[in-house]
Amino acid sequence: MPVPAPRRRPLAVIDIVRLGLVQSSLGAIVMLVTSLLNRVMVVEYAMLAAIPAGLVAFHYVVQLSRPYWGHGSDRGGSRTPWIVGGMGFLALGALLATNAVLLSPLAPVLSVLLAVIAYAMIGAGVGASGTSLLAFLASGVVPSRRPAAAAITWIMMVAGIIVAAATAGHLLEPFSPQRLALVAGGVVLGAFLLTLAATRGIEARTVRVADAHDATLQQVPGLAPEPPSFRAALAENLANPATALFTLFVFVSMVAYSMQDMILEPFAGLVFDYTPGQSTRLASVQHMGVLAGMILVGLGASAFGGGTPERMRLWVAGGCIGSATVLALLGLAALSGGDWPLRQTVFALGLANGVFAVAAIGAMMSLAGAGHSGREGIRMGLWGASQALAFAVGGFLGAVAADFGRWALASDGHAFGLVFAAEALLFLVAAGLALRMGSTLAAGKRQGIGQEMTA
Fold this sequence. Notes:
With about 450 residues, the protein is mainly α. The chain has 16 helices and no strands. The chain has 2 domains: about 15-205, Up-down Bundle (Growth Hormone, Chain: A); about 230-455, Up-down Bundle (Growth Hormone, Chain: A).
C-alpha cells in the first residue's frame, strides 16, 4: 500500500528554529576561519596582519557569486542540496585553511597559496549555503512571521559564534598545532552533522508561501513558468526599481554598519585607556545590545503586523536613525573622553544596530517572497553580494580612515570622532533610502509595474 505524501504547510516555528541551527553552524565555521585562525596567524605564527585581513576580505569578494548560487537553487526546485552542499564546501575550505596555517612555518609560500584556495572555497560555501537558506525562509515563512524568523535565525547565528568561540578557546589551552587541528576538525564536523540533522525532511513538507497567488497555474501540467536563465533573471531584478533601490540601501547601510568593526576596541583603548580585557568586555556589552535589538524586532514587528515590505521599512529606518544618533554621541565621547558613560553608549549602539540588522533581513525576506515564486534565491543572492562587498569595503575603510585621521590631525579623539560622524551620515542616507522604498513600492502598484515585488 503506497505511503501518503506528507501534508505540505508553511514553515512552523520549530522548523524555523531547526533552520536557525544551520545559521549557528555557519557562524561557528566562519568564526573559526575569520577570528581564531586570524589570531593564530598573527600571534602564534608571527605573520603580517595584512595576510589574514586580505584573506578575510577575499572571502567576501568571492561572495559576489551569491546571485549565481541563489539562481541555481531557484532553478533546481529544491534548496536543501544547495544548503547542505554549500555547508560541505565551507567545511572543506575551513579544514584546508587550518592546514594551510599549520604548514606556514615549513613552506610559507605554499601555505599562502593554499590559504587563498581555502578562503575562495569558504566564500563560495557561505554564499551557496547562506543564500539558499534565506531564500528557503523567504519562500516558506508566512509574511507575519518573517520578522520573527529573521530574529530567530540571526540570534541563533550569534549564539553559534559564541558557543563555538568559547568551546574552541577552552579546548585550545595550552596551544599546540595538534590541538588546533583537532579543534578545527571538531567544529567543522559538528557543524556539518548539525546541518544534515536540521534540514532533514523539512523541505518535503513545506509549501512555498509565494506560490499562493498562482497556485491554479502551478496545478496545470506544462503551465508553470519556466525559470529564466541566470543572465535574464539578474537583468530582470536589476531593472526592477524596488530591487535596485534595496540593493543600494543594503550596500550603504552595511558599509556604515561594518566601519565600526575594526575601530571600536582600539577607540576604547586609545581614548579611554581601556585595557585589552576591558575593551573585550566592552565588545560583549555591544553584542548584548545587538541581541536585545534583535529580540525587540522579532517580537514587536510580528506583534504589530510588521511583516510586509512597506511596514518593515519603518523598522529598518528606525534602526538606521537610532544607529546614527548613537554614533553621533560616540563622536562627542571621542572629543570629551574622561567620564563619558561609554558602556551605556555602546550598549545603545548595539541595540540600534540589532534593530537595523534584523529588520533589514526581515525586509529582505519580505521583498524576496513578495512575488512570483522561483525568484527568491537570486534576489537574496543579489542583496547578499551587495552586503558582502559592503563588509569588505566598510571594515577596511573604517580602519584606514582612523589611521589617516590620527596621522593628519595628531589627535586620537578627533580622528575617531570624524569616523563616527561619517558612519552616522551614512546611516542617515540609508534611512532615507529605506523610507523611499515605500513610495517605490506604491508607485509600482499604481502603475501596474514591478509586480514581482508588490504582492
